[in-house]
């Protein structure tokens, strides 16, 4: 099974975070089944998605597909929360998307810092007085549940009992880490475009862009990536080539101390604080480094305990990517732990099948199905951030 998954990834297929006993799932177009057979794999069509109808969208639009917020709505939401709660929230512009950097539209890359503000809070320095939890959504644009979870978390932090925790922890949220990609997704309206990558580059026979979760400079260009620009797991021309990746890494270096010596087996020190969560979908997993290999990190026992604690609250499964799915290199969670020693996790939110499964569940699934599970894990991560190791 693992060998088949790695071979599929090596050939550039979009292998989903989903298994059914010996079956793997691949997303593709009308020609993918034939290509799979020509590459020596048995194949059958599990689900046929209706074609997306790309349509011009107005900057005034705030929702699509039954209630999901547009990128412009997300950015406006950050400003609205900061204006309504100046004692708690600060918005930080940490860079530009690829299209904006090219002068062709695009968006600011924005984060919001939420805490009971005191001296030194929300400053772009790794010597902050409080431990920091960092949460981001929609690094992969089509994973629309994650942006909605980020929106709900922001509102919950400033309007519920979670506010009481903000005296001892600083929370950073990037609701949309890949805004150019999200603009492509939402252009489909009630049939969202299942675009994964950013918007950099062209391709004659597939989606444009670079996979931002294969572009980070930790073991970049190794297993589970593709050099094919049309592949959904295209890693980019070099490590950290994308402005979105560069901006995130720069922000993390400003927020966290480096507590880990170089080398794949070195452990971060016990005085490390904070945690980084990258929300993805789907599969109901809590994943932690290393993702490029099944080799254990120097802090494996602590990472595994944190992951198991979160998974126990949500019913998810916890493990390294290679233990549960497949190995892939150049991921942001590996980079955070590799470069800084900070515990980092990927949450794959949502079941593989059923009404509320997949990349684009009905919006009604968010409040009653996904949010209660995700909220419990977020609270667990907030509590663990002060002394994760």
TrEMBL record:
The organism's place on the tree of life at top rank: Bacteria
GO MF: carboxypeptidase activity
Cofactor needs: Zn(2+)
Record domain Peptidase M14: where: 67-384
Keywords of this entry: Carboxypeptidase, Hydrolase, Metalloprotease, Protease, Zinc
Catalytic residues identified in the record: 348
Record family assignment: Belongs to the peptidase M14 family.
Name of protein: M14 family zinc carboxypeptidase
Native species: Lentzea miocenica
């Amino acid at each position: 099974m693992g060998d088949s998954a790695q071979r599929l990834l090596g050939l550039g297929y979009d292998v989903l975070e989903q298994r059914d006993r010996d079956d793997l799932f691949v997303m593709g177009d009308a020609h993918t089944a034939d290509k799979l057979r020509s590459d020596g794999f048995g194949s059958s069509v599990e689900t046929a998605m209706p074609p997306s109808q790309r349509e011009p969208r107005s900057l005034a639009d705030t929702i699509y597909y039954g209630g999901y917020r547009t990128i412009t709505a997300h950015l406006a939401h950050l400003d609205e929360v900061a204006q309504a709660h100046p004692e708690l929230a600060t918005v930080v512009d940490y860079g530009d998307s690829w299209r904006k950097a090219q002068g062709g539209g695009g968006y600011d890359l924005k984060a919001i810092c939420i805490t009971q503000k005191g001296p030194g809070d929300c400053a772009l320095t790794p010597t902050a007085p409080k431990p920091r939890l960092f949460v981001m959504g929609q690094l992969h644009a089509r994973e629309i549940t994650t942006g909605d979870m980020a929106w709900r978390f922001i509102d919950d932090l400033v309007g519920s009992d979670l506010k009481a925790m903000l005296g001892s922890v600083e929370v950073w949220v990037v609701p949309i880490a890949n805004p150019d990609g999200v603009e492509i997704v939402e252009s489909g309206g009630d049939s969202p475009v299942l675009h994964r990558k950013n918007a950099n580059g062209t391709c004659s026979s597939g989606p444009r862009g670079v996979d931002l979760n294969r572009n980070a400079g930790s073991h970049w260009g190794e297993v589970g990536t593709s050099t094919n620009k049309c592949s959904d797991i295209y890693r980019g021309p070099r490590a950290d080539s994308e402005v979105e990746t560069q901006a995130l890494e720069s922000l993390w270096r400003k927020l966290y101390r480096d507590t880990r010596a170089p080398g794949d087996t070195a452990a971060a020190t016990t005085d490390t604080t904070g945690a980084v969560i990258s929300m993805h979908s789907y599969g109901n997993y809590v994943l932690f480094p290393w993702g490029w290999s099944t080799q254990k990190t120097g802090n494996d026992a602590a990472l595994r305990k944190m992951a198991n604690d979160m998974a126990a609250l949500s019913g998810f499964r916890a493990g390294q990517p290679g233990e549960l799915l497949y190995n892939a290199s150049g991921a942001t969670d590996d980079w955070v732990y590799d470069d800084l020693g900070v515990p980092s996790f990927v949450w794959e939110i949502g079941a593989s099948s059923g009404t509320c499964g997949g990349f684009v569940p009905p919006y009604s699934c968010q409040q009653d199905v996904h949010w209660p599970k995700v909220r419990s894990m977020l609270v667990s991560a907030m509590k663990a951030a002060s002394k994760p190791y």
